[in-house]
């Protein structure tokens, strides 16, 4: 009986030992496989990192080359700029109307004067004009015997008065009222504007953020009024405006320039005022970068 019990215990011990050995062996093999997998993963990452490093170096080289080429182009444009625009606008009097005070468009006047144009006046619409109170409109109605109701009527009447001012060169009492209350800014460069009648208008717009009412209420209404008074209008904006008005201007069928704050945009502006027609610039709404060569020829 003891021999059988001893035999059974011995057999059990042998199987337990075998089990323990198999377990240890499996773990050792598993660890070896795991370590090999980790080594392969690390090697793969190192290889990929090396590839990324090479790609980064190539990209930096490409960027540097593109920058060099752009600088060459910019230098070339700077050198031919005055040659291209010089005296192209002799005999043309241009009024500059800026429908926003959120951006600087000071370069427009300098560009046009470099091209030989005269700039009798510049007008800037301030944000205050768009946001006047109902009580102020009521005061205007009382003083000027008007019947304006709400913002739409107000802006329409402002545009009517601005159009008359641009056309005649004579500021009404209402225009003086707007200036005195800092609702618009007016700069005139000649004592008697009637001697320098406006031939064409440059309308500069755009906004920091989306505002679908403002372009229709102010810009498009102005364009239509100028058209009715035989004042050709070119609509422009900076390349960096937050909300572009170009699509609105295109619907109003006027020529547009969306990068007027660049040398290329300034050249386009002069050429359009000189007779070119189209939508120029660098944004998706542009049809061409600049007017075609045929528009540059004398």
TrEMBL record:
GO CC list: membrane
Entry coiled-coil feature ranges: 42-69
Biological process terms in GO annotation: copper ion homeostasis
Keyword line: Coiled coil, Membrane, Transmembrane, Transmembrane helix
Transmembrane residue ranges: 6-26
Key word Transmembrane present: yes
Highest taxon, organism lineage: Bacteria
Alphabetical list of InterPro entries matching this protein: MctB (IPR021522)
Record-given protein name: Copper transporter
Organism: Alkaliphilus metalliredigens (strain QYMF)
